[in-house]
From TrEMBL:
PROSITE patterns on file: SAM_MT_TRM5_TYW2
Every SAM-dependent methyltransferase TRM5/TYW2-type domain range: 79-321
Entry keyword Transport: no
Lipid biosynthesis in keyword set: no
Keywords, alphabetical: Cytoplasm, Methyltransferase, S-adenosyl-L-methionine, Transferase, tRNA processing
Name assigned to this protein: Class I SAM-dependent methyltransferase family protein
Example GO biological process: tRNA N1-guanine methylation
PANTHER family noted in UniProt: TRNA (GUANINE(37)-N1)-METHYLTRANSFERASE (PTHR23245:SF36), TRNA METHYLTRANSFERASE (PTHR23245)
Entry-linked InterPro entries: MeTrfase_TRM5/TYW2, SAM-dependent_MTases_sf, TRM5-TYW2-like_MTfase, TRM5/TYW2-like_N, Trm5a/b_N
Gene Ontology CC annotations of this record: cytoplasm
Pfam families, A to Z: TRM5-TYW2_MTfase, Trm5_N, TYW2_N_2
UniProt xrefs under CDD domains: AdoMet_MTases
Biological source species: Oxyplasma meridianum
Amino acid sequence: MMDHLSVPKKEAESVLKILRNSNAVNSRFRIITEGDNVLIPINEEVSLSDLNVEYRIVKHEGNPDASKIGRPLKFKGSYDVIGDIAIIKKGDQEDPEVIARKILETKKNVKSVFLDKGVRGEFRTRDLELICGQGNTRTIYRENGLRFVVDVGNAYFSPRLATERYIVAKSALEGERIIDMFAGVGPFSVTIANMKRCEIHAFDSNPAAMDLMKENIGMNKIKGKIFPHLGDASEMILKYSEMDRVIMNLPHTSFSFIEKAYAALRKGGFVNYYEILDSAGLEDRMEKFREIGFEMRNKRIVHGYSKFLNVYSIELFKNLK
Ligand SMILES: C[S@@+](CC[C@H](N)C(=O)[O-])C[C@H]1O[C@@H](n2cnc3c(N)ncnc32)[C@H](O)[C@@H]1O
């Protein structure tokens, strides 16, 4: 029996798009129709929290796709594919070199496989070790119908936030004035500006991320306007007031910037806040947010971080009082 996501037929197309963007669909099996629902086969290594699903996972024996029988089986071990680059997580049970060879054998578009030795420093760049392949860190990545130039060695990028970016872009209203406080190569800003005619001020202190963000704004046909600003977000944000939304994706240290985000918002304005927390830490944060003058609209786990820690997405709004 294997995991399938049960989704109402009319929502299946849009859900499939999100799942495919996250490499979550098990393409060796067919999608099954059952009454008003479809059952989408899901890859074993995908967790519910990664998918951010509002739908039920059900067990089903599965309907193998005959055209794929005989091909090499999927293997265990977590890795991300970003364009023509695969990044293996440190700490997988299998030997990274064995995983890397299997990836090169099975994923024809992958040209380089790196080992991820952690994200470091103010710029949150990945410490990468080339295991096999060409070793180019720059590539083109497709997500939510958009193209992004990324440089996995010189500016932060994670494909695991694809669904989150889609959710935030969907929830933004036409005409919003937004600050993307830690914008990196611009995936939140570009995804929102693609869907909504917003004005977005995108900050980052990493010059390499800023250059890539400018390329990404230029290479996608977007409706909204993005203004890239290089520098320290905690200083730049002081010039803004009455903003509709602030996006705070710096999960290790977001909290130290929260009061400045509060000051930049209009009453009723939103914060999309990300932080790595355990459940006790989450309770504590909620209390602190209330003291500052925020109320919580929503929270969800974006993905697991370690045994007890998760990356949380918390939607706050500035109290109307
Ligand atoms: C976790 S990454 C998020 C990037 C982007 N939002 C995304 O989803 O890919 C955080 C980014 O914040 C930037 N950063 C860290 N401290 C900063 C600061 N004080 N001011 C501006 N940017 C900062 C880093 O350079 C990095 O690109």
